[in-house]
Amino acid sequence: MPATDLHHLAIKTEDVDATVDFWNGVIGSHSVDRPDFNFPGAWLQFGETMIHLYGGDAAKNKAGGHDLGSAAIDHVALSASGFDEMRDLFGEKNLDWRQMDIPSFHLWQLFVHDPNGVLVELNFDARQEPPGSAGPDDRKVYDPGSF
Predict the structure, then answer these.
(1) Which domain holds residue 1?
(2) Which of 107, 82, 5 is nearest to 47 (CA)?
């Protein structure tokens, strides 16, 4: 039987609270109950997808440090709505972000890193955005090799 959906992704983090604040306060997930594991962490949810955060020793690499970035995973892509509001929120939170317009696919995109360096891509269906939405402009255009 084939896979049917993404159940969850897991992020190892040195700072569980900052990561929860980013994903819940910026991206729009919400915290849900988590089993009582023997390490700190959190479970976050949006739609049917969850994010599992690992903290403490469970988040450390073999050398005892904390990795940053997405390693072999280049980025996490999410469907979203409210492009203009999200871009404004990134500015209010002083986050470094990029944007892209792909007219042939009616796709507007925003890119931002979470506190652990994980690249988050938000995809907006331009046809579903509220009337009067501005969408991407010529500022901070996303370049895959430079962000």
Answers:
(1) 1-65
(2) 5
End position of a domain, from candidates 46, 65, 84: 65
Token pair 């039987």 is found at 1
Pair 73, 141 in one domain: yes
Cβ neighbours of 39 (radius 10 Å): 12
- In a 3-state reduction of DSSP, which class is residue 99? strand
pTM for this predicted structure: 0.83
Tokens coding 94 = 């002083």
Helices (H), 1-147: 16-22, 83-92
CA angle 48, 7, 76 (to 5 degrees): 90
Q: Look at residues 41, 32, 82 and name the one whose alpha carbon lies nearest to residue 60.
A: 41
Q: How far apart are CA 20 and CA 134, in angstroms?
A: 29
User: What is the total count of domains within the chain?
Assistant: 2
Residue 5 has pLDDT above 90, yes or no: no
